[in-house]
Amino acid sequence: xxxxxxxxxxxYDELFVPALFQQWAPIVLDAARxxxxxxxxxxxxxxGVLALAAAERVGPSGAVAAxxxxxxxxxxxxxxxxxxxxxxxxxxxxxxxxxxxDAVVSQFGMMFFNDRSAAMREMFRVLRPGGRLAIAVCxxxxxxxxxxxxxxxxxxxxxxxxxxxxxxxxxxxxPKLLMSICSNAGIADAEVYQHAGVVRFESIAxxxxxxxxxxxxxxxxxxxxxxxxxxxxxERALQGFVAPDGTIAFEMxxxxxxxxxP
Length: 262
Hints:
262 residues; 9 strands; methyltransferase activity
């Protein structure tokens, strides 16, 4: 086995991807109408779950490029495939020529972009005429009851700043806001729709440990004593979402933005 230092990206890949993100890859590819032979770009590819699914779908006659701004995420992704063209870069300044791709896709990254309209403008720029854009973001926190209960617990225990850090991935859960971002990017015919999804962890303890380790939300914000308190209180606050086998599951829908380049 290769010798590498474990990073938050490894935690993301081993725990978050199967619990939440893997289910969305075929949904986003369907939204972009990806077929064999297409050339695809995955923006904010993370550890590669969507790019890998795209490569499988387009087959040997197609091609996939993938880009992320976090080197640790790309390091994990590169261990998975040498056929995908991995790039370190920002969504707001894509290193590709105009009209390069049949489809541009992205899942659960746009919430963290510095300039979302600029990123969407860039994604549209690199699409070929007739190409499709498909972007998935988390729906509002109120539509994910388990995570809403967890956020309320964080606020009760540790205050607004900790709770708001956890709420960050849900900030684009508003169709009107997404349409405004598209309009600012010059994308006139965009559509936004909700798609059902489920979060599933093997236990409450697994959920809490994973969230604590997430570098994009709670990572580094809780000390050992706070983590112990959160773990204990979560057993009570989240018990209503636990199945008889001890697994925890609840709804977490996404909003999917689609558009076609004229």
